[in-house]
Amino acid sequence: MVAKRQKDETEIACQQILSQDSSVYSIQWLVIPAPHAAGVTAAFLLDRYLSHVRKYTHSIIRPETSAGGIEFRLCRSAASVLSFAPPEFSATAGSTAVHLCIAGGMLVQADECDRGKLSLLAEGIAGGTRITIQLSDYCPLLLGSQKPSRLRKLFYRLTQAYIHKVVTIKFLARLYRELAGEKICVRVKKVTVHEGEEI
User: Fold this and answer.
1) Spatial distance between the Cα atoms of 98 and 107, rounded to a whole number of angstroms
2) How far is C-alpha 159 from the chain's CA centre?
3) pLDDT tens-digit profile of 99-158?
4) For residue 197, which of 18, 65, 97, 191 is within the disulfide window of CB 3.0 to 4.6 Å?
């Protein structure tokens, strides 16, 4: 039984850090075996991710798409917790990606609204396709500045950073189930992609 449980586990790699300027870098990825992810596009990933955010938060956060970009609105109000510029799509041999540049919102430091990016990527690798979600150069309002106090760091870690991590891991697990047609037992594995203070 133990051997079977270990065999059925699927790893989701994860790292969340504060860079030297106290911007947030967060990355999670999962490998979906071939050929289950054949034909996955960046547009497909974006559509599924936005749908997941709405469903997982029970519409407390409602992604709204327009010609001006994408907004994560709070409940039924017009208040945007995060705003993004229009999606930027890219593709190379064996990989596809979509990048959402942060453009504002209540959760962003007012003087850092022109920084930060959320990216969803699908990259063909040996044995399957690696699906990655990456948040980079994000400056949360909860941290306050480039020199946040320990209390602010702790509060951010226990709230927004934790929520982002859980939502992302649940999304990757749901995506695996949709593409492969089977449930998985997830094991989160810490990885080091960039150096920084762990959060």
Assistant:
1) 22
2) 15
3) 999 999 999 999 998 899 999 999 999 989 999 999 999 999 999 999 999 999 999 999
4) 18
For the chain, helix (H) and strand (E) counts, in that order, are 4, 11
Token pair listed for 155? 């509060």
Q: Taking the model in full, what pTM does it have? A: 0.92
Burial of 31 from C-beta contacts in 10 A (0-12 / 13-18 / 19+)? buried
* DSSP class per residue in the chain: -HHHHHHHEEEEEEEEEE-TTS-EEEEEEEEEETTTTTT--HHHHHHHHHHHHHHHTTTSEEEEEETTEEEEEETTSS-EEEEEPSPEEEEETTEEEEEEEEEE-TTB-GGGTT--EEEEEEEEETTEEEEEEEEEEE-BGGG-SSS--HHHHHHHIIIIIHHHHHHHHHHHHHHHHHHHSS--EEEEEE--SS-SEE-
Hey, what CATH class is 10-198 in? alpha beta
Per-residue DSSP letter, 181: S
Domain ranges of the chain: 10-198
Structure tokens at 191: 């990885």
